[in-house]
Amino acid sequence: MIEASGLRKSYRTRRRGKVTVVEAVRGVDFSVQQGAIFGFLGPNGAGKSTTLQMLATLLRPDSGDATIAGADVRRDPGEVRKRIGFVAQTSGTYLNSTGRRDLILEAQMYGASRATAARLADRVIESFQLKDFVDRQIGTYSGGQRRRLDVALGVIHSPQVIFLDEPTAGLDPPSRARMWQEVRRLRDEGMTVFLTTHYLDEADTLCDRVSIIDRGRIVAEGTPSDLKREISGDVVSVDLAAPDTAGAPEPATVLEAAKVLAEQACVESCEIIEHTLRLYTDSAATAIPQIMRALSAKGIEPGAIETRRPSLDDVFLAKTGRTLAD
Amino acid sequence: MKHVRDTWLIFQYEAALQVRNPVGVAITLIQPITYLLLFTPFLKAVMDVPSYGSAFQVYVPSLFTATGVFNGFFAGFALLAAIRQGVVTRSRVTPVSRISLLLGRLFMHALLIEFQAIVVTVAAVAFGLRVRFGDLLLALVLLAMIVLLSASVGYALALLVPNEGSLGTLINSIAQPVALLAGVLIPLSVAPLWVRDVAYANPFAWGTNAMRSIFQGDPGADVVWQSFLITAVVATAAVILTSRLFNRELA
Predict the structure, then answer these.
(1) A77 and chain B in contact, CB less than 8 A
(2) What does the pLDDT look like over A32-83, one tens digit per residue?
(3) What single DSSP character describes residue A189?
């Protein structure tokens, strides 16, 4: 349904008279199957939105190709626009308009007559349950209501592909859960969903497939469970801050502990995140005693030890050496 | 046909929102009346004319051009607001005609300014201005064309300097000399010769002169058709260039 190969985009920015070229997206490839929820996961500034804008014909790629529902983004942007819906990160509505007014305009912009547009608006008002507030001014909506209206606007013409840029950014937990429900419903109705997110749990629970993007390049691609399986075993986090003291441990202590633990046979790799060591091990059950022994041999007292199954953040860390939470 | 339909669509949506904004409507009404009330007494004294009616005969047409120039140049702020709120992006991902996104908004500004001009005229007629209905219609058509030109320039400036703070300063420093050289505050007939020569290159100066001829009951004067022609040509060029700027990054 979506094929992209070698997409690139760089910007020129001018700061204090100096022109610098920022390579926002540097050669991105992926393909999305029909009826999937495809997640583009990455930290802020990784190139997610830029890629999305190129797919949605808002930005001309410097090079590379993309085809959406059979239409070429460069050669036939008009055809692409008919087949897709796009919900940007910032809402696309005036605060003093009403939801219904904008829904009708949206359908008319896709070529519907006034009467058809009113009918299409009624349909999404029903399916997204907007009835209680749709005739009020948009400025009075809650964050979750406004976001639901945004998505309803994006799909009013029943597109084959819907692009959602950070659909749950800034929403409270109940509104996020609600939005996930709506996204799954769109997928179940046969739409292909392409979304960007910087939330791990969203990529993990909502997406059928995930591409992890960092600094304009895709660093990993697959189903969330496949990606996590690549990181074998358990993750052991060792927090070196003593539980009853306020201060963080000496940086030298952290480095020494990391060095000692990385030498242990049971530890595959070790990453330092502030005063916490994240250790990748075959099995936490056998690794923890060894870790404790090695640390006490050096006279280091860990504040807390925690073990868990690998998450997508561990995948990101393994591929980039940084964590998404930074 | 699609361009016309889509332009109408954007125009009626944007215009309806303006009408629903009571503060905006109040400002639109109060602004020209204030000008009229404060400036005409000066003009009457300076020009040494017998009545307010004859002062209005000179000042109302130039007020038409002045509101056209100033409001048009400042129209870019509305575009920046639409861009900031994501309204422009949202319409750009739809198949709606690209030029309609610009034209629909320009016509919305033209409508607002026509409305102001009508308010001014009604107020001035109450104080003694005399103008034939047909002449007034002709002046309103010319005003709409002037607004298409000035609002295109205003949009282009906003796209080039997308920062509200600097944009205000920039517009002021351009609009003031343009308005002076259009003879909207002080008639160009009292200006030195070299200023009058410079004003020949200002399409808005032609507009002011044509407006005065129309209001003096002489719509057949050469300056009227010349002004229509010049404004039409320059406005078309401005709309085309601004449209290029507006759509430059799109696929």
Answers:
(1) yes
(2) 989 899 999 888 888 888 999 999 999 889 999 999 999 999 889 999 999 9
(3) T
The confidence band for A326, taking pLDDT boundaries of 50, 70 and 90, is: low
Angstrom distance (rounded) from CA B9 to CA B11: 5
Does B85 sit within 8 Å of A93, measured CB to CB?
Answer: yes
Tokens 């949202």, residue located: B90
Domain that holds residue B102: 2-246
- Each domain of chain A, given as residue ranges in start order, spans 2-227, 232-309
Cα B201–Cα B202–Cα B207 angle in degrees, nearest 5 = 130
Q: For the structural domain made of A232-309, what CATH number should be given?
A: 3.30.70.980
By C-alpha distance, the chain B residue nearest A9 is B249
- A103 Cα to chain B: minimum distance (Å): 12
Distances (CA, A) of A145 to A120, A163, B211: 19, 19, 51
Judge whether B251 lies within some domain: no
Residue B244 touches partner A, C-beta closer than 8 Å = no
The pLDDT, as a whole number, for residue A22 is: 84
Q: Is the pLDDT of residue A18 over 60?
A: yes
How do residues A154-184 score in pLDDT, each as one tens digit?
999 999 999 999 999 888 888 999 999 999 9
Q: Domains in chain B: how many in total?
A: 1
**Segments of chain B with pLDDT less than 70:** 249-251
CATH of domain A2-227: 3.40.50.300
Ramachandran angles phi, psi of A197, nearest 5°: -155, 155
Q: What span, in angstroms and rounded, lies between the C-alpha atoms of A122 and A319?
A: 47
Give strand pairing partners of A122.
none
Interatomic CA distance for residues B77 and A296, integer angstroms: 66
Query: Strands A276-281 and A267-273, how do they pair?
Result: antiparallel
